[in-house]
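Backbone Fold Data
Goal — fold tokens
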Amino acid sequence: MAKAVKIVLAGEGGQGVQSVAEIIAEAANEEGREALYIPNFGVEQRGGVSVAYLQIGDQAIGSPKFLTADIIIALSDRAVHRTRKYVGPDTVFVYDSGIEGVEDAIPTNAKKVLAIPALQVANEELNPRVFNIIIMGAVVKATAVVSEDRAKDAIEKKLGYKFEKNPKLRELNFKAIDRGAELVAGLL
């Protein structure tokens, strides 16, 4: 990877945006790469828009600021609107296809737009709490920003203490990553 990959993740407080950013950064570190993660919380912890800025590269990352993202992940309608300013001609824009009322806000200048039915799949097949992990699985598969195995290792590292108490949570999160990868495979 010649240049750092610039990622913006956004959603409502409580949707796990910061957790996903931390997991992806951890996976990159485990691959021996550089990762710079900067959280930006909304006015409230729960209910405000939460944004995570993440860069991953093979060399030291000089600046935390960037104007255009390579990957944008939007988990809510307000997140779609808030992240549009980071879209450029090389951006992969990923969002949950169940978000209503954003049809006119989806950027048309992105390289690729991937609408993933993550919330629907989480509600119908898995658990609503893992819809962000489904989106993460889709992003990992679509962009190869980190490997799927490293993403699972990073989930284990971040959530292992919960998995010890309830081993079924490990299986649920790993299924969510795999399911996200399956969903996006049909769009590539």
